[in-house]
Design a protein that fits this description.
By secondary structure, the chain is α/β, with parallel strands linked by helices. The protein has two domains: 12-30 and 102-356, no CATH class; 379-623, 3-Layer(aba) Sandwich (Rossmann fold). Helix content is 60%, strand content 9%. The chain has helices at 12-29, 31-63, 68-100, 103-117, 120-123, 126-142, 146-175, 182-187, 192-220, 222-236, 245-251, 254-262, 273-279, 282-309, 315-356, 419-426, 449-453, 470-475, 482-491, 495-500, 522-536, 552-560, 562-565, 601-605, 611-623, and strands spanning 379-386, 396-403, 408-413, 434-439, 442-443, 456-459, 540-544, 570-574, 586-591, 594-599. The strands form two sheets. The chain has a six-stranded mixed sheet with strand order 6-7-8-3-9-10, with helices on both faces. Strands 2-1-4-5 form a four-stranded antiparallel sheet, covered by helices on one side. It starts with 11 loop residues before the first helix and ends with a helix.
């Protein structure tokens, strides 16, 4: 897989600003989680210094005067400090671990809430789907984006305190006076301490920079490994997809997976992009970084040994300086890596913020919604035309129709004639490209969006039944009115099936949350969706192909109850089965994005040249007595 276009370079200031913004968003969602992580990180880097200092004192005393009283005091103090440190550490870590259980949920919730707030038009856009898929891949596999931000700033604060504590115990390494010998002549040279510190700093800095370069290569090729991971996710889990199991076995579709696995040039395979990058330059950078780290350790130990041999300090201080110096320069190295992590993570955050910064373009008015007026009210489409964003073709063109309150309208026509789009515009999932939609004579854009949406209960073709309880699926949340739930299921023709469930409306739909849960058929799921629409008890009920998955007997049952289902409501009924139109007051015939006929069943059937009559008699053999 070839690398995708070069990304625009981001300065450190821009990268830091993006990461800090993400950190702030997470902090506002979970302040205790962030606080617990930072406090635990800082505590973990500072407490070892107390043990280092006390250990050095004990070793010096053992190598020196060996005063029993002082040794006893130091040992008791060490034990007390260690015990207190362990207790405090246990408390802080427990707090952090409890808060960390919500870490991934906190990150996910940021994007879940954003997706829920997006205009349906944006959420339905294929580009948004691609963006969300890329973000999810980055969070799950690459460990970048919002998930990475917390770890970056953990490192930053941790190393700042680590360096500060280390300097406090290390500064005397460079200022301590030596005795008079050959080694002291070298260590007492005026700029030797500065040179030694610079050499050590340079080694660890270059090592960290090389490590950053390795990470930058991954970030630079973010699009490539996002796409590679998407392939892996799809093919790797295809065998676990229950809905695909039958087709896979009948058509041997596992061959798709074999073809993908056999492609050794895909992103993560032996001849792919990352195999080549692992040889050079990632492999070279990593090897050099490791080698310089070893040289750094050697330089630190050499300098400390020279000072010790020259008489600057005793053996106890050797252990203190060795440990604290390594921590200081390791902290510096980690800060340099923090610089790289911040820059590399910015490439991932750009995707995250593309979603976060999406603005609603849907006009949301403030006018309160009144009940439909019988005389002059209801819904009216006036010269409405619509084309989906990013396309040039009109799905609806110059549609004008008035829908009276309390009436039943059937929308019929061939596939692709614009019926479902008509419903989406009515429900304000999209706004018209041209023309306007009126409710009670007022443009629907002027109404409070939430209030307007509450007027509609819709059963779409692609409805979704959750894996929660049956009653929760009907009530769209916690079951608050059990009697109403059962009545709606009965009206939707689900009463016989409900009687078979031992747990009634508390039965889980599926076995994810309860091994005794049930798997319902497509027709049964459709009845549950109809019951959900009835439970909402909205003034407008819309059924889009409500009997598509039902058998003829169940379909006839729904038709027989249609008047009860829509009693006192305005109903719109979309169906390919024209027998359902007999239950409606008026019929709108859609064809190629226009309403070409509008009237009652008898009126349209009497038009010998009309499209409705043509469709009716094409289906007559299926529903005529």
């Amino acid at each position: 897989m070839k690398n995708i276009d070069k990304e625009e370079k981001i300065s450190f200031a821009q990268a830091f600003k993006m990461n800090w913004r993400a950190f702030g968003i997470i902090y506002r969602k979970r302040p205790q989680m962030i606080a617990s992580r930072l406090i635990a990180s800082i505590w973990d880097v500072l407490t070892p210094y107390a043990e280092i200092w006390l250990s050095a004192r004990i070793i010096d005393e053992l190598a020196g005067d060996r005063d029993p009283a002082r040794l006893k005091f130091l040992v008791i103090l060490t034990l007390a400090v260690t015990a207190a440190s362990a207790l405090i550490s246990a408390f802080i870590r427990k707090w952090r671990d409890v808060q960390d259980t919500s870490f991934w949920f906190a990150v996910d919730r940021i994007f879940i809430e954003k997706k829920a707030s997006l205009d349906y038009a944006d959420l339905d856009n294929p580009k948004t789907h691609e963006l969300i898929a890329a973000m999810e891949t980055i969070g799950s596999y690459a460990g970048g984006g919002f998930a990475r931000v917390v770890f970056c700033f953990d490192t930053f604060f941790q190393q700042i305190f680590s360096i500060a504590g280390g300097i406090a115990l290390t500064v005397s390494l460079f200022t301590s006076k030596t005795g008079e010998n050959a080694a002291s002549a070298l260590t007492e040279t005026p700029w030797i301490a500065v040179v030694a510190a610079c050499v050590m700093g340079a080694l660890i800095a270059v090592s960290s920079v090389l490590n950053n370069k390795s990470g930058a290569i991954w970030a630079k090729n973010a699009k490539a490994h996002v796409l590679g991971n998407r392939f892996f996710w799809h093919f790797g889990w295809l065998g676990w997809d229950d809905e695909a199991a039958a087709d896979i076995r009948i058509y041997n579709q596992q061959r798709f997976c074999g073809k993908y696995i056999a492609n050794k040039e895909s992103a993560f395979e032996s001849k792919g992009l990352y195999a080549k990058l692992s040889k050079y330059p990632i492999g070279v950078y990593s090897a050099l970084s490791t080698g310089l780290s070893v040289l750094f350790s050697a330089a630190v130990n050499a300098y400390i040994c020279i000072k010790a041999v020259s008489g600057a300090f005793g053996v106890g201080m050797v252990t203190q300086y060795t440990a604290s110096t390594m921590r200081v320069f390791s902290g510096i190295g980690m800060l340099i890596e923090f610089y790289g992590d911040i820059k590399n993570n910015a490439a991932y955050l750009k995707l995250d913020f593309q979603l976060i910064d999406m603005k609603s373009s849907l006009q949301k008015g403030t006018r309160g919604v009144e009940p439909p007026r019988k005389e002059s009210g209801g819904i009216e489409f006036k010269n409405v035309s619509f084309k989906y964003p990013g396309t040039d073709d009109y799905v609806l063109k110059n549609v004008s129709i008035k829908f009276r309150p309390g009436s039943r309208l059937a929308a019929v026509g061939m596939n692709g004639s614009g019926k479902t789009t008509f419903i989406k515009l009515l429900c304000r999932l999209y706004d018209p490209t041209e023309g306007e939609i009126l409710y009670n004579g007022v443009n629907i854009k002027e109404y409070d969006y939430g209030e307007y949406m509450r007027m509609f209960a819709v059963v779409f073709q692609d409805f979704y039944i959750t894996k929660f309880k049956l009653g929760e699926n009907v009530s769209s949340g916690p079951i608050t009115d059990r009697e109403k739930v059962e009545k709606c299921l009965e009206s939707a023709g689900f009463a016989d099936k409900l009687a078979e469930y031992e747990k009634g409306i508390d039965t889980y739909m599926g076995k994810i949350y309860d091994p005794d849960g049930v798997e319902c058929s497509g027709g049964e799921a459709q009845k549950i969706a109809i019951a959900r629409a009835l439970y909402k008890d909205a003034p407008f009920i819309i059924l889009d192909e409500p009997t598509a998955s039902l058998d003829p007997i169940a379909e006839a049952d729904i038709y027989s109850k249609f008047n009860d289902i829509a009693k006192g409501k305005s109903a719109i009924y979309i169906s390919h089965r024209l027998s359902s139109c007999k239950f409606c007051d008026e019929i709108a015939v859609f064809h190629e994005g226009q309403i070409i006929q509008h009237g009652s069943h008898d009126e349209l059937l009497s038009d010998e040249d009309g499209k409705y009559r043509q469709l009716w008699y094409a289906q007559a053999q299926y529903y005529q007595k």
